[in-house]
């Protein structure tokens, strides 16, 4: 899935300085800055989120609770800043609470209707909920606002990939690459679309190029894994899913994809373990039956 907050972070945070200051910010809390500084709580939430990405499940839940606690404080202090609502929405989306995420994105758009970021990420949450018409409206609005921005274009390409409109996805990714020849995700999603059309050789070329540009993006490794899966090269797919999971250990979809690949090579125990892990990360969807079809495949 699309994991981004780069535009919003760039507006308000000195993100490049966060890693070295992260532990100091977390440890000293409100003593570092004044208690009424809303930006401080946002910085602290981002620092905690970085820890969450590399944490284990139980510790990760505690960290995510702290992330939300801090961003809630920021919103209480300054409820009219769209950045705070966008960030909290991204946290809700990352923890599969898409209704709450959409509510925050709605509020951010009410405050600033000209920022394409909120349309993109609201569109992604709507896409997860299979509200396809509304999602496409959001992606189209993002492209209308910034037609020369490669991120708005490849994001709409993600929508078209997900809804199996592969020709449209390729068209958007081509335009994104024309704007920025080093746009890794545009290559990655064009590759996924090409694979959907059966053009696996060209798909691998695109995914390999994407990995060369951005080797630390888990989504890109996941996409190449999907291409290998489509080619019935399941062991190679598993290797890519392993890399993706190492980078993004909290993404349930990656465990589901790897589990299906394990099932294809007859490793049922590992397949079941991945399904269980995905369920721990994405419990609400399992309870709603949203994973029932894949659950049957794996078990």
Looking at this protein, list some descriptive labels:
mainly alpha; 77% helix; 299 residues; Serine Threonine Protein Phosphatase 5, Tetratricopeptide repeat; single chain; 18 helices
How much helix, percentage-wise, in residues?
A: over 70%
CATH topology name of the domain at 1-146? Serine Threonine Protein Phosphatase 5, Tetratricopeptide repeat
Architecture (CATH level 2) name of the domain at 1-146: Alpha Horseshoe
Count of helical segments?
Answer: 18
Main sheet: strands, sense, barrel: none
State the end-to-end distance.
24 Å
Q: Using DSSP, what is the number of strands?
A: 0
Q: What value does the average pLDDT take?
A: 82
- Write down the overall geometry: globular
Determine the strand fraction and express it as a percent band.
under 5%
Helix-and-strand structural type: mainly alpha
CATH class of the domain at 1-146: Mainly Alpha
CATH superfamily of the domain at 1-146: Tetratricopeptide repeat domain
Radius of gyration: 19 Å
Q: Topology as H/E string? A: HHHHHHHHHHHHHHHHHH
